[in-house]
Design a protein that fits this description.
The complex is a heterodimer of chains A (318) and B (322). Chain A has 16 helices and no strands. Chain A is mostly helical and 318 residues long. Chain A has two domains: 67 residues; 209 residues, MetI-like fold, CATH 1.10.3720. The radius of gyration of chain A is 26 Å and the shape is flat. By secondary structure, chain B is mainly α. Chain B has a single domain, classed as Orthogonal Bundle (MetI-like fold), CATH 1.10.3720. Chain B contains twelve helices and two strands; from the N terminus they run αββααααααααααα.
C-alpha cells in the first residue's frame, strides 16, 4: 500500500490528535508486553496476579473500544453545536445542555415516531406469537394429510427474504389500500417460518406422557394448550417474543418504502430524516439517536437471557 | 381438565367379547375424529399460510415472471414479453456485475472480521472473573443498536465538520471517507462489523458455553498453552457454531441495505452499490421494475444457497436432540 493510498497519513503530516492517539496505543501495547513478560517469572502466586491484571486490562480496553461510539454519541448530544465541531474534540460534557433532547422530541417528531414504532412492533410481536403458536401446535400434536409438505413449505419461507419480495409486496399493499397505514406496516410480518419452527421444537420437547394427553376430543385442545403446553414452553415463547421485538423494532427497508409522511413513520426512518433535516445541529441528531436507541438497550438489559436464546436458536443447544 | 385415563391408552381397539358391530362404529367415530383433527390443523395453519401465500410465495413467483417483461419507458404502456433477452442483458451489464462485485467484497470485509472479533471477545469473556457479567453485557450491547442507529451515529461522526475521526486520524480538511471511492465500502463495512459485533459475540459465547468445562480444564492441566488450546480444543468443538455464524453473517451481509442508504446511498461512483441497494435504486429512481426483477431473482438464488445451509443446520440440530 503506497503512502498516497493511506489518505495523507504519512509521518510528516501527522495531526497532533493522531499523535496523541498513537501514544495511547503505544502505551497500551508496552503495558501489555510488560505484563506478558512479568507473567512468566516469579512465584506462581505472583504470576497469577499479574495474569489477572493483564486479563482485566484487555477486557477494559476492548470494552472501551466497543462502547466508544455510543459514549461519544451521548457526550455530543449534551454539547452545544459549536462544541461538537470543536478541535480538539471535547470528550466530556462539563456543562450538559439538555435542550437538544426536547428539540429532537418536538421538532424532530421523535415522540410521534417512537409511538408509531411501539404500535407497529407490538402488533407484529403479538401476531407473530399467535400464528406461530397455532402453527406449531398443529405440527407438534396433530395428525393431518400433507403434514410434512406443509412443514417444508413453512421452512421454505425462510429462504425468501424481504429484500427479494419488497417490490411486489409494495404493489400488493398499495392495491389493498394499505399504503401508509398500520396494516401495511404490520400484516406482512404477522407470520414467520422461523417462529413456527422454533415453537414446534419447544412443543416437541414436552414429555411424551403429556403429549399423549393431546389425543383428546377437539374441545380438550384449548385446555391442553393453555394449561400444559404454553406454561411449559414459556422460555421459548419469551425468546421468540423478544427476538421478534428486536427485529420488528429495528426494521428499515419496509417502513421506508411503505410510509410517505410523518404520521406513520417509525423511529428508524424518522431518525434518517432527522439526520438529513438538522444539518448543522449535530447535538440534536445525536440526541435523536439516543432516544431511538434507548428502548432496545433497556430491553437488552432486562431480557438479555431471552434474547440470547432467541438469537442462538439453531446455533447450539438452547 | 380433560385428561386421558392411564389405562385408556392400553385399551385395544376391540375388547374381547365386544361385538363386531361395536368395532365398526368405533372405526367410524375414529375416522370422524381424524377428520376433525385435520380440519382443526388446517384451521390453525390457515393464518400463516395466507400471509405466506400473499407476501412470500406470490411475490417470489411474480418477480420471476416479471423478469421476462420489459418495463415500458412511460407509465401506463403495457409491459411486453421479451423472453430471456432482458435477463441476459441485465446479467451481462456493467452495473449488475459491479453490484455483484461490491456485494462480494462487502461480504469478505464484514463476515470474517465479525467472526474473528466476536470469537476473540467471547473467549476473553468466557472465564470466571469478578464483574465478568458487566463485560458480557458491554460486548453484546451493539445488538441493541439498529442499523439506522448505528449508521446515523457513524454518518455524523464521519462528517468532516464534526471531525472527531478526521482529527484522531489526522485527515482534517480532506474528503470524508464516505465520499472517497477508495474508502467508502471499507467504512461502511467497519460500521456493519461494529453493529453486528454484539450478535457475533452472543453466538460465539453460546457456542463456547456448550464446550464441556472438563475438556478445557483437562487441556489446562495438560499445560497446553492458550493458542494450542484454542486450535486443538476450542475451535474443533466450536465448528458447528462457527459454521452457523458464517451462514447467518453472510445472509445478513447479502441483505444489507440500511447502512448503504444512510451512509453513502450507493456512492461514491457506485462503489458501495450493493445488490439490494441497486434493486431499490432501479425501482424507486429508475422506475425499471423489469430490471429490478431480474436482480431480485439473482439475489434470491445467491441467498438460497446460504439459507439452505442454515435450514440444514437447524434440521441437524433437531436430529442431535431427538
Amino acid at each position: 500500500m503506497s503512502a498516497e493510498v493511506v489518505t495523507g497519513v504519512t509521518m510528516g503530516t501527522l495531526a497532533p490528535g493522531f499523535r496523541t492517539f498513537l501514544w495511547i496505543a503505544l502505551g497500551v501495547i508496552v503495558a501489555g508486553i510488560a505484563l506478558l513478560v512479568a507473567s512468566r517469572r516469579g512465584s506462581p502466586h505472583y504470576r497469577r496476579r499479574v495474569a489477572l491484571a493483564g486479563r482485566y486490562l484487555l477486557l477494559i480496553l476492548l470494552a472501551v473500544i466497543v462502547l466508544f461510539p455510543i459514549y461519544i454519541t451521548v457526550v455530543d448530544s449534551l454539547l452545544k453545536p459549536d462544541q461538537v465541531v470543536a478541535k480538539p474534540p471535547i470528550l466530556f460534557p462539563f456543562h450538559p445542555q439538555w435542550s437538544s433532547y426536547s428539540t429532537a422530541w418536538t421538532q424532530g417528531h421523535l415522540g410521534l415516531y417512537l409511538m408509531n414504532s411501539f404500535i407497529v412492533t407490538t402488533v407484529i410481536v403479538v401476531g407473530e406469537l399467535a400464528t406461530s403458536i397455532a402453527a406449531a401446535y398443529a405440527f407438534a400434536f396433530l395428525e393431518f394429510p400433507f403434514k410434512r409438505t406443509l412443514f417444508v413449505l413453512f421452512l421454505a419461507t425462510m429462504m425468501v427474504p424481504l429484500e427479494v419480495t419488497f417490490l411486489t409486496n409494495l404493489s400488493t399493499v398499495v392495491s389493498l389500500g394499505w399504503y401508509n397505514t398500520y396494516l401495511g406496516l404490520t400484516v406482512p410480518f404477522l407470520a414467520t417460518g422461523f417462529g413456527a419452527f422454533l415453537l414446534r421444537q419447544a412443543f416437541l420437547g414436552l414429555p411424551r406422557d403429556l403429549r399423549d394427553a393431546a389425543k383428546l376430543d377437539n374441545a380438550g385442545h384449548w385446555q391442553f394448550l393453555r394449561r400444559v403446553v404454553l406454561p411449559v414452553a414459556r422460555p421459548s415463547l419469551a425468546a421468540l417474543g423478544i427476538f421478534a421485538f428486536f427485529s420488528a423494532f429495528g426494521q428499515y427497508l419496509w417502513p421506508l418504502i411503505v410510509t410517505k409522511n410523518d404520521r406513520l413513520r417509525t423511529v428508524q426512518i424518522g431518525l434518517k430524516f432527522l439526520a438529513n433535516s438538522q444539518l448543522n445541529n449535530f447535538n440534536v441528531i445525536f440526541a435523536g439517536t439516543v432516544i431511538a436507541a434507548i428502548p432496545l438497550f433497556v430491553l437488552l438489559i432486562l431480557f438479555e437471557k431471552q434474547l440470547v436464546r432467541g438469537l442462538t436458536a439453531g446455533a447450539v443447544k438452547g | 381438565m380433560n385428561v386421558t385415563h392411564p389405562f385408556e391408552r392400553l385399551k385395544p381397539d376391540r375388547l374381547p367379547g365386544e361385538s363386531v358391530g361395536a368395532g365398526l362404529r368405533k372405526t367410524r367415530s375414529r375416522r370422524r375424529r381424524r377428520t376433525m383433527e385435520s380440519l382443526l390443523a388446517f384451521g390453525l395453519l390457515l393464518p400463516s399460510l395466507v400471509i405466506f401465500g400473499v407476501f412470500v410465495f406470490y411475490p417470489l413467483i411474480r418477480q420471476i415472471y416479471l423478469s421476462f417483461f420489459l418495463t415500458p419507458p412511460f407509465p401506463g404502456e403495457p409491459n411486453h414479453y421479451v423472453g430471456f433477452s432482458q435477463i441476459q442483458q441485465v446479467l451481462s451489464s456493467h452495473d449488475f456485475l459491479n453490484s455483484l462485485w461490491v456485494t462480494l467484497l462487502f461480504v469478505l470485509y464484514t463476515v470474517p472480521a465479525g467472526l474473528i472479533l466476536g470469537l476473540l471477545l467471547a473467549v476473553l469473556a468466557h472465564q470466571q472473573l469478578a464483574g465478568i457479567r458487566f463485560f458480557r453485557t458491554v460486548f453484546s450491547s451493539t445488538v441493541a443498536t439498529s442499523v439506522a442507529v448505528a449508521s446515523v451515529i457513524f454518518f455524523t461522526l464521519l462528517n468532516p465538520e464534526v471531525g472527531l475521526f478526521s482529527y484522531l486520524f489526522g485527515t482534517q480538511g480532506q474528503l470524508s471517507v464516505l465520499d472517497d471511492p477508495r474508502w467508502a465500502l471499507l467504512a461502511v463495512s467497519v460500521v456493519t462489523v461494529w453493529q453486528n459485533l454484539g450478535l457475533s459475540f452472543i453466538i460465539m459465547s453460546a457456542g463456547l458455553q456448550a464446550v464441556p468445562d472438563e475438556l478445557l480444564e483437562a487441556s489446562r492441566i495438560d499445560g497446553a498453552r492458550a493458542w494450542a488450546r484454542m486450535r486443538h480444543v476450542i475451535l474443533p468443538m466450536l465448528s458447528p457454531t462457527l459454521f452457523f455464524a458464517i451462514v447467518v453473517g453472510t445472509i445478513l451481509s447479502l441483505e444489507a441495505f440500511g447502512q448503504i442508504d444512510i451512509l453513502t446511498a450507493g456512492g461514491p461512483l457506485q462503489h458501495t452499490n450493493v445488490l439490494v441497494y441497486a434493486i431499490y435504486d432501479q425501482v424507486f429512481n429508475q422506475d425499471n421494475d423489469g430490471r429490478a426483477a431480474v436482480m431480485t431473482v439473482a439475489l434470491f438464488l445467491i441467498t438460497l444457497v446460504f439459507t439452505l445451509f442454515q435450514i440444514w443446520l437447524l434440521e441437524r440440530r433437531v436430529t442431535y436432540e431427538r
